[in-house]
Every structure is written in C-alpha cells, then in structure tokens.
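Following up on my earlier thread - several people asked me to post the actual chain instead of describing it. Fair enough. Here it is, all 78 residues.
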Amino acid sequence: MYGPQGVYLLGRNQFALSYEMLSSDPTNNPDKNTVTVQALHNLSDNMYVYVEGYLGGGDDGVYDVTTESERSVAAVGA
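Reply from S.P.:
Thanks for posting it. Predicted structure:
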C-alpha cells in the first residue's frame, strides 16, 4: 500500500488531498485505490470541525462476481 498526501494550511483552515493505492496479487486481492479529500477548521486550540469525502474504486469481487465497483463515503465530525 502506498500513496501521496498533500496538505495546505490557510490560517485556521487545513485542506488535504490524498491518493492511496493497494497493489497485490490479482488472483487473491485485486488492486484498489482511494481518493480522500478533507477540509478542517480549528474553532479553538481544543476543538475543530471537519468534512471528509472518500471515493474508492477497485475490483471488489462482491458476491463472488468480479466486477469493477466504486464506493463513496462522506464524514462530518467535531
């Protein structure tokens, strides 16, 4: 598994973008990749809020059928 991540700081805000790739034996665990985007805002030294989004794709073999599939997830937190 490997992937680059970039982070940009702008005052009390932080923006991040990353790309992760998992390469393995295609007969057992096919390749998968994930793009992650995050925006974070510091409300104080001890409190921050964030929004993250994940877009994952790869050959998951869902229900024993080998098909290309994608998943997306959103997260909001404090």
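The chain has no helices and five strands. That should answer part of your original question.
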